[in-house]
Design a protein that fits this description.
Helix content: 55-70%
Order of helices and strands: HEEHHH
Amino acid sequence: NLMDFCIGTVMFILIGFGLFLGEDLVGIIGKPGFDIFTDYANFDWSNFVFNLVFCATTATIVSGSMAERTKFLSYCVYSAVISAVIYPV
């Protein structure tokens, strides 16, 4: 679960949060990038932390069903994909 949170945090910061609340790209989805973090005065950090923890919790739920059934690398890839793409969308 700790590795889940570590991988999830990195992927959510790099890709997920931009997709979730980033600048609109074609009016459908947010544009991933760090520009969402540049306006510190008007940035809602509580919203970011809430979504980060909820994203990690979402990825952790499946860990019980995948335990001892998949290889560790496969689980790490799953955690990265769900944190970067599936939860934000």
